[in-house]
Every structure is written in structure tokens, then in C-alpha cells.
Prior knowledge:
By secondary structure, the chain is of the alpha+beta class. It has helices spanning 42-50, 72-75, 92-97, 109-122, 138-150, 168-185, 196-202, 220-225, 230-235; strands at 4-13, 16-26, 31-35, 57-62, 65-66, 77-80, 156-160, 189-193, 205-210, 213-218, 242-245, 258-261, 266-281, 286-292, 295-301, 312-317, 321-323, 329-330. It has 2 domains: 4-235, Rossmann fold (3-Layer(aba) Sandwich), CATH 3.40.50.300; 242-330, CATH 2.40.50.140.
Amino acid sequence: MAEVTLKNLSKNFGTDIGVEDISMTIPDGAFVVLLGPTGAGKTTTLRLIAGLEKADRGEIWVDGRNVGNETPAQRDMAMVFQQYSLYPHLTVRDNLAFPLKSPILRTPSDAIERKVSEVAEVLQISHKLNNKATALSGGEMQRVSIGRALVRDPAIYLMDEPLSSLDAKLRTDLRVELKRIHASLGATLLYVTHDQIEAMTMATHVGVLNEGRLVQFGTPREIYENPNSLYVAGRLGLPRINILPVDVFQNAPVRATHIGMRPEHVHQGDGLEAEVKRVEHLGDLTRLHLTLNGHAITTVADPTMTYDLGTAIKIAPKNPLFFDGNGNRIR
Ligand SMILES: Nc1ncnc2c1ncn2[C@@H]1O[C@H](COP(=O)(O)OP(=O)(O)OP(=O)(O)O)[C@@H](O)[C@H]1O
Ligand SMILES: [Mg+2]
């Protein structure tokens, strides 16, 4: 496995920005998740690294080697695409074995068979090994295409929203599996998604993309606790962070226009009166939906307490985040 570094990587499509001036280091053995909404430049970043797209500007380094002029094969990366791509005339077994049958690798056939069984087991697809690739559900096809990457031992795995077509149960199972595979192989992974749960549960590092730019890079915890903009604050955390005009509360810094409060940072007991609008008892916690001067606020509350609709409770922000008129964090 390898360390991959991007230096000022840019790519336009005509007048559209694909990615703009992206610099980051994916440490050897890291599980980096690129998070961003549709059109943010996630797929473009992966395709540039894999060599499927040529950068307008910038460099890509793999373990100290500039790979800018290398072919995709020379770069030795395994990519899982957003749209699965299998050989339809081959069985699942042969699809999985295919990347290992390259004449350069000369993998012995018993080693191929062992690897294929192991990966099929992990992806819960063993019972379909003799099926034609076309005789599978969408979710099964996507698992086979993940498997085709996992049979290899590349410099880095590049994965483009590999779980998005799967049902919730399988998605949860495979999140756990990918994390386990990452830990046991010591693999370096760059994984792209717009799903913040995937980012929070799997990543060692998260890069947040906005309109082709990398706007923050850090551990999931750093990004959650210390977002550098309103945009980043809104990308992690479910329910979303509460954003209110700053004049609702006192003692804000001078340039601040907005205050951000995570639901768990709405402190009860003293402060301003808010009205209870909706109560969701979720078992381990209770979620309260309040209004304060007409602004909606979501909080978490003690599940052993009872809250009546229409009553008032007092709240104050704990660990508030302040933002200026451009949406930048004021520290
Ligand atoms: N081949 C292409 N030709 C023209 N424009 C493109 C091409 N590929 C990407 N773009 C543009 O580049 C920008 C980034 O696209 P990209 O596919 O990287 O986004 P994404 O973050 O992967 O989005 P999604 O979540 O929808 O997959 C978009 O504005 C897109 O329209
Ligand atoms: Mg994409």
C-alpha cells in the first residue's frame, strides 16, 4: 500500500469546474472519505488519480513517484465505479478472478481460488459464484464489482459511492466489512460518498468538497467539532446543526452573523424560553423540536423525562460556533 499526495490538482470541463486546486495527502494505510453533494467533484478527483482523466494543472504523487504521465495500469490502483461494470458473459467466480489472471501477475490457480472464495465470503456472495454476472440483482452486481477490487493488492483502493445502490441492511453490513478489511489489510483507501454516516463510521480522515474545492480536511471528529465554515458544519451531524441569527442570543463576537449549535449543545435549565413543538421518544434518547422567537431548534433530551407539547423550557447554547457574513467560522 502507498501514500498518495495531490498537489494543486485542477480540471475543468469547458466552463464547468470539475475540481479546482485540490491539495491533500492520503497517508499510507488511511481510510480517507471525500464527502460532498452531487457535482462537488468527487468522481472527477478519483478519475484523475486513477489516470482515467488528465489534469489541467497539478501533480499526483504515489510513494514519492510522480504518476502524472503513467497509464492507469502503471499506477496500480483498484477502482470501484459508481456504476458497476462486470463482464456479463462470465460467471461471478470468473469476474472475481479476472483481475488476478493478468499475465503479468502469474498468480497460481489455487491462490486465485482461495482469494476468490475469501472475498466472496466477505461480500456474502459465495452462493452465487456460479451465476452469470447478468443473473444477479443490482446489489449483488455491486458487491461483485467491489470484490473485483478487493482480490487485488494495489497501491490504493479508489471507491466511488460503492454502497449507494444497496439496501439499508446490506449497506450497514458492508460498512462494517470495509472497515474490517481496511484494518486487516492495512489498505489505503480513498472512498467517495455524499452519505455522512459512511464518512463518520469508516473514515480515518474526511475531506469535504464544495464546488470542486477541498474546503476542509481532518479526522471526522475534528470536522464535526471544529468546522471552519457554515457549509462544513452542515455536512456532518444528523439531525443537522441548528443555525440561528446571532442576535437571538447575547455575547456574540462583533463580526458574527450566525450562531451554530449542535443538538447536543442546546443546554436546558437556564437562558431563553423556547416552546416544545414536537417530541420524538427514540428509546435511548428523546429528541425535542422547539421554537425560539420563530426559529426551529432541534435538541436531544433525557429519555426518562416527560415533555408536554406547548410548554416552555429554558435553553442556552453550550459550545456555540460563530460564523461571519461569508459563512466563515469566527474562532
Ligand atoms: N465528462 C464530463 N463532461 C463535462 N462535465 C463534467 C464531466 N464530468 C464531470 N463534469 C462536471 O464536473 C463537475 C463535478 O462532477 P463530478 O462527477 O466529479 O461530481 P460528483 O461529486 O461525483 O457528483 P455525484 O455525487 O453526482 O456523482 C460537475 O459540474 C459535472 O457536471
Ligand atoms: Mg460522482
